[in-house]
Amino acid sequence: xxxxxxxxxxxxxxxxxxxxxxxxxxxxxxxxxxxxxxxxxxxxxxxxxxxxxxxxxxxxxxxxxxxxxxxxxxxxxxxxxxxxxxxxxxxxxxxxxxxxxxxxxxxxxxxxxxxxxxxxxxxxxxxxxxxxxxxxxxxxxxxxxxxxxxxxxxxxxxxxxxxxxxxxxxxxxxxxxxxxxxxxxxxxxxxxxxxxxxxxxxxxxxxxxxxxxxxxxxxxxxxxxxxxxxxxxxxxxxxxxxxxxxxxxxxxxxxxxxxxxxxxxxxxxxxxxxxxxxxxxxxxxxxxxxx
Length: 291
Fold this sequence. Notes:
Blueprint: H1 2-11, H2 23-33, H3 38-51, H4 55-59, H5 63-70, H6 77-92, H7 98-102, H8 109-118, H9 129-140, H10 150-155, H11 157-161, H12 170-180, H13 200-204, H14 230-243, E1 247-248, H15 249-256, H16 265-277, E2 282-284, E3 287-289
Antiparallel strand pairs: 1-3, 2-3
């Protein structure tokens, strides 16, 4: 991987979470980056750390404070999960291994591996769509690898990391190579790994057909006549309740949906009930609160 790391040194993205080994700051970045593009995360990352600079400060935050700070990133459960992890860390201490990280509720295999390699500096390999695509092409000759190949990749971590002294930069380099060069339609002619890649000759010769979709189409619920999936409207309801303490239920529909009509009442009520069931909001005397 020396060629990859040499390329990364010259062309890698200079991102703030790559300049730290602090597990808290790394976890914040990893959770924010889930289902969110890097440019958007950059708008929130430093602000979040200013408001919640440590495990303890986040652990002491209320639901409302956390949701207000997260507002705009979407998937608000991520923020509350992050706060709950902070509570656990404050009570039990910072995990010392990839396995220990994965024992925390909300921390999956990818995030645990990311914390292990970027903070603990162990040879853990976080596998996402970017890492899978590059390694599947380079080592296993798969133009469009699926998650089925992840086990094979894990079994060959020694080859992936090689003898690189800065092995902890390998995953970051893979992220950037996938983003900049090893895209859905790869730019093999300028790739630093083209001579080692088992798939490059096929791409360069035009022998690979690009699939229309690499991922399954989302099955998010969208109400007939509405512009966005339900999760967008639920997010708006939550944001409204977090910013206006005790917002009246009768006002919610028209505020979160400009096209709201009385016929949407049952739909709106169902979304509110789901937020209550998920313990994201509470209802008292006809008003919504985030506490």
